[in-house]
Write a structure and sequence with these properties.
The protein has 161 residues and is of the alpha+beta class. It is 29% helix and 27% strand.
Length: 161
């Protein structure tokens, strides 16, 4: 395990890796505060082990720490690498783990010859938007869930040099 002063190295979680269950538990715990905050309700409680396996099969799942203290899913798109389920354990916040995973995502995007990172965040999560801005993301769009007239989700991108 990394020392307190040494940042953990991100590791890729492959299909069948028992740490995928840890990552899913972390995502559920980290996203729980959204209950009663976002409308429509988050689908996080319906996210099953199979979804994390699929994320590791169809894209990439990366984690930091042992046990998993932070994680992110990466999905290549035609013109960007999409970041999803970026989560940091409450006890590990403020240690730069989100920045570590975003920096790693930048390296993965470059390796895949993709010019930008993309992510979505619910409109109500203003503190998250500020975090994404501090990490170099810019709001580029908004979408609405089916049945909603107003935007429910914002799209952020980070162009890579």
């Amino acid at each position: 395990m990394a020392s307190v002063t040494e940042a953990p190295r991100p590791r890729r979680l492959r299909p069948g890796d028992p740490a995928l269950a840890e990552a899913l538990a972390l995502v559920r715990a980290a996203f729980a505060y959204m209950d009663g905050v976002v409308d429509p309700p988050s689908s996080i409680h319906r996210l099953l082990d199979e979804a994390m396996e699929a994320a590791a099969t169809d894209g990439e799942v990366w984690a930091a720490g042992d046990p998993v203290a932070a994680c992110v899913t990466l999905t290549p798109q035609q013109d960007a690498l999409n970041l999803g389920k970026l989560a940091v354990a409450e006890a590990a916040r403020g240690r730069g783990l989100a920045r570590l995973l975003v920096t790693h995502a930048e390296a993965r995007a470059r390796a895949l010859a993709l010019p930008r990172l993309r992510l979505q965040s619910r409109t109500e999560l203003v503190a998250n938007h500020a975090t994404f801005a501090a990490l170099g993301f810019v709001r580029v769009g908004a979408t609405a869930h089916p049945g909603y007239a107003s935007p429910t989700s914002l799209t952020f991108e980070k162009e890579l040099p």
